[in-house]
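call fold(seq) -> C-alpha cells
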Amino acid sequence: MKPGNPDNVIDLNRARLGDRPEEREGRNLPRVQSPHPPAPPGLQRRTRPRRIIAVGGGKGGIGKTMVSANLGIALARAGQRVLLVDADLGGANLHTALGVSPPQLTLSDFVGRHTDRIDDVVVSTPVPNLRLIAGASDVLDAANPRYQQKVKLLRNLQGVDADYLILDLGAGTAFNTLDFFLIADTGILVLLPEPTSVENAYRFVKAAFFRKLQYLEDQYGIAALVDDMLSTREGAVRTPFEFVSRVKAQDPGLGESLERELRDFRVQLVVNQARTAADLNVGQAVVSAWKKFFGLEMSFLGSIKYDDEAWKAVRRRRPVLLERADCDAAQGMVKIAERLLSLDGRLAVPLAPGSP
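ret:
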C-alpha cells in the first residue's frame, strides 16, 4: 500500500481470490483506469478518491467504527470531501456512530442489484463535506456477497468522487474484509494496549499480506509457494519475513521482488483506549518489534487516550468530536487526522478540535 498513489489499485486480472471455486478460474477482469487529465480550474473532479483509507483490526470491540466516524468528521472539517463507507457487511452500525437515522437505501441495495449506481446509496450527514454509505445490516447473506457482487462493489468504491474514502471494516480475517483492506492506499490497524489485541492485530496483518500474495501468484509464479506457506503442517513458514527469506534463498531475483512487495505493504497503527504512559508507548514498541521479528513495515499514526466522554458519546449515539470536541479522545482523533493530511501535504495549519 503506497500512500497517495492514484494508480494503487488491486489488479483484478491477476487475482486468485480463492474464497469461492469460481474465483479461482482466472477470469479476465479489467482494472480500474488511472485518473483522466486534470479538469479546468473550478472543476477539480477525479475518477477515484485522492486517498482510500481502510480501518481494520483483529477483533471486535476495539473502536474501529469510532475511529472511522471521527476521523471522517475531522477530515471533513479540514475542508476535504469525505465519503464514509460501512464495509462491515455482517454487522453494520456506522450510521449509529454518526447519529444518523438508518437510510432508506444502503449498501445491500447496491450489492443486491436494486440499483446499479453507487451514488444512489450515498446519503448526506449533518457534517458539511461528509457523506455516508450505510452498511447492509438488513440482509442475511450480505456478509458473503457472490464473487461478481464483490468485484462490482470494489470497482465502484475505487471510482467514487471524493478526496478521502474511508472504509470501516468488519472484525477478523475473512476474505471480504481483507480484500477491502487491500484496495486502500492507507491501511489503518486499530488495537488496544492489551496482549490479546496485539496478538490478534498481528494475525490480521499477516493474513492481509498473505492475501496480497495470492493476488500476485500469477505475476510472480508463486502459486505453489503460497499454498505451502498457507499450509498448517509442521515446518510451514509462519511469518512474511520468513517466507520472503526462504524464497530469496532459492531464487534471489524473485526474493528481491517479494521483498519490495513486503516493504510496500506498510500499515499505519493506531492505539485506542490508552490509559497509562506505558500504553501511549505501545505503538512504537509494536512497530519496532514487528519490523524486527516479522519483517512487517509499519508506521505509528497515534494514540487515543481512554476517555469517559468517548463511551458517553457512543451511548448518546453521537460522535465524540461533535459531542465533546475538547476531550482527550477527540483531540487524539484530530492529531491522527493531521498526520494523514500531512502525508498528502494538505495540512497548512493545525486543526482546531471544534472547528466548523
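The longest strand covers residues 267-274.
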